[in-house]
# Entry
Amino acid sequence: MMNRKVNQPLFLVACLFFAQHYTAQNSTHTATIKKIFDYTLTRGKAYDNLHYLCKNIGQRLSGSKAMYLAEAWGLQTMKNAKADNAYLQQCLVPVWQHKKDEKVSATWSGEKGGKLKIAAVALGNSEGTGGKTIQGTLVVVHNYEELEAKHNELAGKIILYNYPFDQTRINTFNGYRDAVTYRGSGASRAAKYGAAAVLIRSVSTAADNHPHTGSVRYNDSFPRIPAIAIGTMHADQLATLATKSEVTIKLKSTSTMLADAPAHNVIGEIKGSLYPEKIITVGGHLDSWDIGEGAHDDGAGIVQSIELINIFHAIGYTPKHTVRVVLFANEENGLRGGNKYADEAAAKNEIHIAAIESDAGGFSPRAFNGTMSEEQYMKFASWLPYLKPYGITDMGKGGGGADIGPLQQKFKTPIIGLSPDGQRYFDLHHCKTDVFEAVNKRELHLGAAAMAALVYLIDNEGL
Ligand SMILES: [Zn+2]
# Structure
């Protein structure tokens, strides 16, 4: 008896350790998560919803007619899913007028002189040539160091940034982050030295001639010169030509910014049964670029998020906290929806216990990555055993999502991003090839189920 008493505290510590490290032993959680996956993989609606969004509405650039159609569709789809509450939250979005009429060609003289028509897409929010054809000698640089070294030769020239995507990065998002600076800031860096326009090698893992768009960020200290994406193969071809002869580029485009327009975050809720005032936000962005159908980016995230409402109803699970699905406006060229959502949360003193975003493609889910305190992270990471049977191999640190970033900045809300397999994403990201046919039903539904499972765990275990 004496000995047992002495050992009791040790026994309690051992129990606590066991409880913390073997939470996967909770059989109710395991069974519910299996129900979530079983339902989604057999009767889920996300793929059909994505088909409608891509084929009946298509691209949905901020401020376009299609954006308003997508908002109405999103609201109706939330109602069809039997959200307790579905509504719009207004914000103002920038409107970039893009008639997709850019023309770029290259000519060169000499013995093997010739002409090349180049597939081109203006970068988002960029100014064009006002419909006039401009012409300039091509200067090819591979990075900013080369640009600076050649700064005396740039006046009146057309600069090609031929910075290749680093194919050695196994996490392609790191390759994207590494290369995207030329798309975002290359125009102003060249305009500083009097360049007439810039061409950007598409930030893409693919070898083809499909240009990939994305936002340009002008520095107001310098002229807003035209900025145009070209395919990776044309970029290499121009770079080779320029080593042999003088290449002249002709360029014409009409893109320009118009006045801001009203737009909306589309919101659908399941009211919490125990803590309705505490919110778990789940979302993606409803807007897309105006080439392709925005299927992976971010139609996938939209339909996966809406699917959570269907899943919880179908398996008869009523969340304790309010689960709020948000289709954010204007992620691509302004982030006005995400900022508005956090502003409204502050104005209404809302309590957000976590926010999850799917905006990395509709491929097989591989991980969740979260930005949160160390204590929260320990709990988040301990849930891995529940998700491992479904292909989630890591609960990592960092990550979240552009639209939920403002919640983290304002309130330190834990934010989590779904990380699908990224090996094919940058072949089609922001490109005309990002269409419904590029999304696999099973992979899309696995992602939706993984998000529902994570929300279920947060709802029951807290964060
Ligand atoms: Zn996106």
User: Anything to note?
Assistant: Residues 441-461 form the longest helix (21 residues). The pocket of zinc ion is lined by residues 285, 297-298, 331, 359 (CB under 6 Å). The CA atoms of residues 91 and 263 lie 5 Å apart. Confidence is low (pLDDT under 50) at residues 1-6.
